[in-house]
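Q: Second attempt. The first request was missing the SMILES, so the protein and flavin mononucleotide are both included now.
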Amino acid sequence: MVPGRTDRRPAIAIAVTGASGAIYAARTLAALLARGVHVELIVTDYGRRLLRDELGEAASVDNLRPYLIATYGAEVEAGTMNLHSNRDLGATIASGSHGCSGMAIVPCSMKTLAAVAHGLSRSLVERAADVMLKERRRLVIVPRETPMSLPQLKNMVLCAEAGAILLPAMPAFYQQPKSLDDLADFMAGKILSALGFEHDLYPAWTGTADRS
Ligand SMILES: Cc1cc2nc3c(=O)[nH]c(=O)nc-3n(C[C@H](O)[C@H](O)[C@H](O)COP(=O)(O)O)c2cc1C
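A: Got both inputs this time. The predicted holo structure:
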């Protein structure tokens, strides 16, 4: 059993910030929930705006669970999700005693990346990420920006040096994606792998591209 939790299901923290790529967050959340994972969710103010701007009003934070079930299927109901205020630095996941085994920041803005790189811990997203680093747990950062400035590149290096996994929002095309959903599946699969979960979100590379 993970410390700080009374059930045996894996618990993962997911932070959604205001970088483009809300579909990656939605697909990752749905895939974790479909595996029966307990998700501790934090959405920044700009993350809230992003969900609405990119996925529509139906995907606003308050409607997110029904949106995920309607979009990705009833299996999403297997998991549970607990939404935290990003201003609540007294939340359970602000402490290393909570049993979250990992965290993904998806997508991760350059602002939040900078804050994590410098250990600022001003908001719950920043503090929970800092907890992952200090406890030597998995922290997966999915940055999205292009082109990148030198400070942004250096912040990624700082996070990597502190133990985070930098997993840029860079879907691949060798899987012959046919839709945006295929690209989102690829990114969500990479994130699940980095968090230690098995999945079938994209086929394993066989050595040649499948054009069927
Ligand atoms: C529609 C939209 C798209 C944005 N896309 C990005 C992006 O891809 N990368 C980024 O670093 N910031 C992006 N921003 C700017 C961030 O949202 C902004 O820096 C914000 O302060 C980030 O705060 P947060 O990390 O607390 O969410 C975008 C903003 C908007 C409104």
